[in-house]
Description:
Elements: H1 3-19, H2 25-36, H3 43-59, H4 71-89
Amino acid sequence: MSNAIHTLERMTQALKACQQGQLAQNQLIAQWRSDAASLPLPAPYGEVLGNLLDRMEASALFSEESCSFSQKGLFDNLQLWADKARGQCS
């Protein structure tokens, strides 16, 4: 398994742990920012991920779903990003 695919697997595992309440959002965000920086992806991937993680940071300010920040939607979009990144790294 390539380093990039291994990194993406680690990121996906952290996402699942966060969804299950086993990893704090701030830890997930820090790990994803750090791990994504090492991936050989085109620049737009970094921009999209940065926007998603910024929204996730902002959503942490709300204890419940708000009309602007759906945590489930953000988790779904992070998973979609990881899936597309995996396709680029394969």
